[in-house]
Amino acid sequence: MNAELLAEVRAWIADDPDPKTAAQLTALLAADDEITLRKYFSGFLQFGTAGLRGPVGPGPSCMNRAVVGRTAAGIASYMKARAMTRVVIGRDARYGSEDFTEESAQIFAGAGFEVFVLPRPLPTPVLAFATAELKCDVGVMITASHNPPQDNGYKVYVGPTADGINYASSQIITPTDGFIAKEIAAITSLAKLPRGNSWTVLGEEIVTEYVRRTALLANNPGDLKVVYTAMHGVGTETLQRVFNHAGFATLILVDEQSQPDPDFPTVTFPNPEEPGAIDLALEKARDFGADLVIANDPDADRCAVAVNDPKTGWRMLGGDELGVIFGEWIARSRPQGAFGNSIVSSSALRKIAAHYKIDFQEVLTGFKWLAKIDNLAYGYEEAIGYAVDPKTVNDKDGISAAIYLAQIASDLKAQGQTLLDLLDEVWARHGFHATEQISIRVTDMAKISQLLTRLRQNPPSEIAGYKVHAIDDLAAPKDGLPPTDGLRIWLDGDIRIIIRPSGTEAKLKCYIEVITKDAKSAQILLDKLRNPLKEFLS
């Protein structure tokens, strides 16, 4: 075995606080399994604006107590340099979440901070709420959101101000991620760090207050039948409490997916957007004659909705369709503050905001950017993330989105209308906006960089027979946005295409928007674009 790798593995084992992962590495050494060890020792798991995210396993390239401990220690150093003193920790029900919570609490307590821990596995929005409500300097949520079962992650919130940025208790952005990453890299040994065993496990009061505040979004509950799936995550209990507090009928649960299960046994990927993920919920909706299907992802910060379309039967609303519904309703009912969406979302919200004379801002992909908009009243991103109550949770919140959507549907039902009728009103005013996403999974992220480099050096003059009339290199944007890796391409015929790497998964993402007179025309156009774009990106 390579001597340098051998020394690195032995040093890591000696410093590993978890005997289980230390034993795994020791066994690999005994088996002389250099191939597997190189996989686990291919660099420290990168810390960025999404925090940490990766497979649970031993070594510096995975999620484990040693990596989490060093990350917590790096955050502690960052906090001390800025006179920060209070931190709150939340977790979901994934493999490793309890251990990573304890590891973090020990490190933060050992650093002399006042440490709070949420009472049990809870949705990410509860942690985001607690960070602000408890006036904590830092919030940590241990979750991998909708990633595959083998993953876990570490999401960081800062509030209210740090590094000259008005965080207002929201997810970190650059340059804060770089400052924390530098502090993490400076941690050479966990064994030498002090650990504490004194922290406050919060009671139900913080959850009850979140439930009370969120339930205020529904002030006139109706008689809707709502089918709900938590996608094997932690959303069920909290959402049930919100609906009950608001006075809605009891949710119809998808029993097979209602309780936390880190194996996510009924879905290939625990993401409501994935094909087949809500099939059980749709089956339940047909059996019960439901009005709506609502789905959260496993940490309940995203919300998906299905409706019974009279033309096609039950179908999922697209993330942009739901974003437009929320935007139109909020603009009509409480038009104070600013609207915003991510650059890859539909351009329809900008037009709604202009129609109602509401300030609008477009930001980079990721809710961490939307949360920085001054006086945000409503923000969304097409990946089923919505902030319909930013004053309570300055982040995407699948629980508040669910109860607010139920209230909208209930109000429309009382008027003899549906969510689709509301959408039709918007399309009649602004043109039919259709969006679609193409995702290409890769095993080597370098291939995505190579593709984007090729497109920059040899930009296309046409795609699928449509002339390219403008290209915006998002790495050097001209509209005031911070630079990011990606390209925005405009084609003749009101077609916009954005190509970018995923920020959380090994994927290349391509976002298409077409604006036509009706749904049929849009579908014809999307059908013409789809396969040529897949070939173009291969």
- Count of separate structural domains: 3
Helix amount, in percent? 25-40%
Fill in the CATH topology of the largest domain.
Answer: Alpha-D-Glucose-1,6-Bisphosphate, Chain A, domain 3
CATH class division of the largest domain:
Alpha Beta
Q: How many extended strands? A: 24
Rg, alpha carbons? 23 Å
* Alpha-beta classification: alpha/beta
Tally of helical runs: 17
- Seen as an oligomer or otherwise, the chain set is single chain
Description:
With 538 residues, the protein is an alpha/beta fold. The chain folds into 3 domains: 3-203, Alpha-D-Glucose-1,6-Bisphosphate, Chain A, domain 3 (3-Layer(aba) Sandwich); 207-430, 3-Layer(aba) Sandwich (Alpha-D-Glucose-1,6-Bisphosphate, Chain A, domain 3); 432-537, TATA-Binding Protein, CATH 3.30.310. A hairpin with a 6-residue loop joins strand 12 (292-296) and strand 13 (303-309).
Q: Brief overview, please?
A:
This protein is α/β, with parallel strands linked by helices. The chain is built from 17 helices and 24 strands.
Topology:
Elements: H1 3-15, H2 19-30, H3 34-40, E1 52-55, H4 65-81, E2 86-91, H5 97-110, E3 114-117, H6 124-133, E4 138-142, E5 151-158, E6 161-162, E7 165-166, E8 170-171, H7 176-185, E9 200-201, H8 205-215, E10 226-229, H9 236-246, E11 252-253, H10 279-288, E12 292-296, E13 303-309, E14 313-316, H11 319-333, E15 338-342, H12 348-355, E16 360-363, H13 367-370, E17 376-381, E18 385-387, H14 398-414, H15 419-430, E19 432-441, H16 446-457, E20 462-463, E21 466-473, E22 487-491, E23 495-501, E24 507-516, H17 519-537
Helix pairs in contact: 1-2, 4-5, 4-7, 8-9, 11-12, 11-15
